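Side project, low priority. Logging it here so it doesn't get lost.
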Amino acid sequence: MKLVIAIIQPHRLEQVKDELYKADVNLITVSEVLGHGRQKGVTEVYRGVRETGNLLRKVRLEIAVNENYVERTINAITKGAKTGKTGDGKIFVLDLPECIRIRTDERGSEAIG
């Protein structure tokens, strides 16, 4: 089992969700987060003074998948999120040692679905 975490641009969320559904990946948690990568935030000019904001709005997706769904999940996120510009985001894949479905007490791969 793996936990796929993706940080993407908020305006790409619908495209990513569409691609995930096409890949038969339906279990997803979405959070609004703040952060920045290499671009180190936004630079704006306010009343003639250059100001740098250091945190940008992003969306964090968390998707628990069984091993045979990892690549299709990554491919769907990449296809939906990619614009080719700085700030498209990152995908992290972590080992998921345990998953428990509260309603049925199922564990492991069966709990993910």
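Brief comment: The chain is about 25% helix and 35% strand.
Revisit when time allows.
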